[in-house]
Amino acid sequence: MSWRSSGNFRPSNPRPRRGGGSSGGAGGSGGGRNGAPLIDPVLQVLIAITVLLGFIGLIVAISFSGTGGQTTQAQPTPPPAASVPTAPPAAVATEAPAAPAATEAPAATEAPAATEAPAATEAPAATTPPAAAPGIPTEPFGSALASGTGQQVTLESATGDELVFAQDELRVADGIVTLTFVNRADVVPHNWVLIAGDATRAAEINSLAEAQNRRLRNALGSVPPPDTPDVLVATQMLNPGEEVTVTFEVPGPGTYQFICTYPGHYVGGMQGVLVVE
Ligand SMILES: [Cu+2]
């Protein structure tokens, strides 16, 4: 509105100047005083406005360019944020190895379990049986053994594989006896064990002998352990064809059981009695 009003004034102004020139200097001077102040302020306002607009435009342009740079700079930072996802996998990887390590550590502690070491110590113990092999008697023993020479008696096993003594009853006088036992078998070993007791005690002693066999893992060791009560005489195990002579003195008149303690022979019938009169 102000522009149009000022525009209307511009054409109106020259008319007064032309008319003023023709009228005189006083009219001209009066017209100059009124025209110059009217034009200059308008131009100054227009110039000021244009300058301000220019400054504002520059400021706006700079501000946009600055913000644009900032936005572009902010965008590069997000990529690092995008790299963050890589961190989570790393954390997972660290957790996974940690768990296996924990499980492996306990396993290692269990592996050294002292149970294996004791087993190793027991294995050497198993080797001791060979050392105990000397425990297999090679000579007669028993509480009734005596020195010198007494009544001569000979006892033989049955020939072949029959599990019996050739004589199931021997008779001797009270006193010292010198007995020779001969293994007439073809294959199996035999021995002779004289017992102070009845058939039940004989069976018990036979069981002790067979327990020795299992402990020594050697049938030749199937003999009652030394110092077994009620064992008056026990000979070592004789292979076929071998014989042994033993001298002994029984406690007194009576009937005494004698058996072979080779595994299964006593139960098979290899037993008899010694009658002391
Ligand atoms: Cu026998």
From TrEMBL:
Q: Where is the Blue (type 1) copper domain?
A: 153-277
- Bias class Gly residues marks the residues at 19-32
Q: Which SUPFAM superfamilies match?
A: Cupredoxins
Membrane-crossing segments per the record = 42-64
Q: Does the keyword Transmembrane helix apply?
A: yes
What keywords sit in the KW lines? Copper, Electron transport, Membrane, Metal-binding, Transmembrane, Transmembrane helix, Transport
Q: Which domain of life is it from?
A: Bacteria
Q: What InterPro entries does its record include?
A: BlueCu_1 (IPR000923), BlueCu_1_BS (IPR028871), Cu-binding_ET (IPR050845), Cu_oxidase_CS (IPR033138), Cupredoxin (IPR008972)
Residue stretches of biased makeup (Pro residues): 76-88
Segments carrying the region annotation (Disordered) are 1-32, 67-153
Q: Which PANTHER family match?
A: AURACYANIN-B, OUTER MEMBRANE PROTEIN H.8
Name it: Auracyanin
**Protein source organism:** Candidatus Chloroploca mongolica
